[in-house]
Every structure is written in structure tokens, then in C-alpha cells.
Amino acid sequence: MARRRREFWTAICCLAPSAVVITAFHLWPLLYAAWVSLHDWGIKQGPLVGLANYREALGSAKWWQSLGVTGWYVLGTVPATLLLAYLIAELLNRPLRGRSFYRVLFFTPYIVSPVAAAAVWRGLFSRVSLPVNHWLVAHGWQINESGIWLIEPRGLFQWIAEAHGASVPSWAHGPSLALCCIMVVAIWTNLGFATVVLLGGLSQIPTEVLEAARLDGATGWRLRRQIIWPLLSPVLFFLLIVFVIRAFQAFSQIYVLTGQNDLLGTTSTATYYIWQEAFQSGGKGPGFGSAVAYLLFVMVLALTWLQFAVLGRRVHYGSGE
Hints:
Blueprint (H helix, E strand, L loop, with lengths): L1 H36 L14 H7 L2 H32 L6 H13 L2 H12 L5 H8 L17 H8 L13 H27 L3 H9 L4 H29 L3 H7 L11 H10 L6 H25 L11
């Protein structure tokens, strides 16, 4: 009994520092934000308004527009990142001269400061002298000469249709060209992390399993679909969950790249909208921003649960089930 008591208090002492940090920097801000969302909060605490901020947020057209922009952002970054990362990881998993150098090269963008990287990309996207811009103009594509890409609110599909003398309805304009630029930066940033994780997953697949599959005639597409991808599914599922959540939280790169230009709301994701309403002049204050943040939290939580419910059962953990 004395030994169990000693082990119990030892465990408490080991867990206490982490528990204090989690409580101070995660749980307490979460609860405090809930309290703020129930008030008409300005510079200081205002009157209690209950769920009025939530009702106002749900009736806000800008909030729903920001969710649409966020949806385009998720669809444009997550699948592309996973696909490119898998292709690169498969190449780097083969015998290749300088393989370690290429691994470090692809991982480097992930450890670079997002703000610094976004500032460099902003300069690249804003230069009129880029060869790609000259090529597009020479082939009849209309580009905004003052800022080229990052202040262009036209939709991608709208832009393509106009270049060919056609038109598309407003609901089919697609993500704005400015948002597409942001997607490119996000893919470039996250590609290294996804590649390293997938490379680790590929290296853990037993060579005996692959050799046995090849002896049975499984090669190319069949080998990947029936052997590699099922064994790699836990890693792919993990990356899917992480990148979807990360896409919903995107802010710093959007802030630096757009320079706070509204662009008709075409680059205002959910988190950017929260920042505009909570802290920018003309916004509705921290109370409304906290309410919108909680709505986003519930949506991300529900989406994550849905991914586990629908895709989690397809993940093969090698348990022999």
C-alpha cells in the first residue's frame, strides 16, 4: 500500500508541471473566451447578452462567406499537399544519390518562419517582371498590373473563362486568384512535414511483404492499392486530420500576403474574419469574435468526428482484423 501511494504521488509530481501549463494556456483561455462571448465586450466587459452574439454570427453573410472561402482553402491545400508529399516520399524512399540532402531540402520550408516565408512569397507574387506573367499576358490572359496576383479578387474559373471569351455564373467563379496564391504558399510550407512523415511510414513497411506481393504478381498500381496504401493508411489519416485542422486555423500567412486588403472578402477565411471582427477597427468587438471562434471550434470538432466516423474504419492498423 505504501509503495502504491508513493508511486501515485510520484506520478502527480511528474504530471503537475504539464497540467499547470495546459490549464493556464489552454483550458483557462477556452473558458474565458466562452465567458467573453456571452457579453457585449468592447475595450472592457459590457452587459451580458447571452446567446445574442451567436445568433448574430449565424445570421451574418460575411461569416458564411468566410466559411466558403475556408472550404476552398481546405479543398485546395489538403489534397494537393498529401498527393505531392506522397509522390516525393516515394521517390526519396528509393536508392538515390544525395537522398539525405533532398530530404533536408524538402523539409526546410517547414522550419522557416511562416511570416518570413510569406513576406518573400509576397514579393514574388507582386513583381510584374516575373516570366510567368509575361507568358500569360502574351497569350491573352488579363492580369492586374498593380499587384498582379495578391490583390486580384476574380475567381480562378472566372479568370480562365474570361481569357477564352466565355463567362461563368457567379456561383461557379471558384476561389479568387489571390486565394490561389495563398494556397500555393500553404502547400509549399506544409509539403516538407508531410513528406517526412510519409517517408517514415514507407520505410516502416516490411520489405518481406513487398517482395511477397511482387512474387504474387502485384506491381505498380496494384501493389500500391492493395499493399502500400492500406499499410500507409494510419499515416495518411493522421496527416489528413492535422492538415484539415491546420487549414481551418490559417491566419498569419494570409495576413502577411494580403496586407489586410479586403479583396471583396475573397481571402477572408474563418480565422481571418474572427480577427477582423474582434480586433480590427470597425469590428464588432471581442465578444462577437469569441462567439464566432466558438462556432468555428464546434465545426472543426464535428468535422474531425465525422472524419473518424467515416474514414477511421477504413484505416488499417495491422492488428489482423
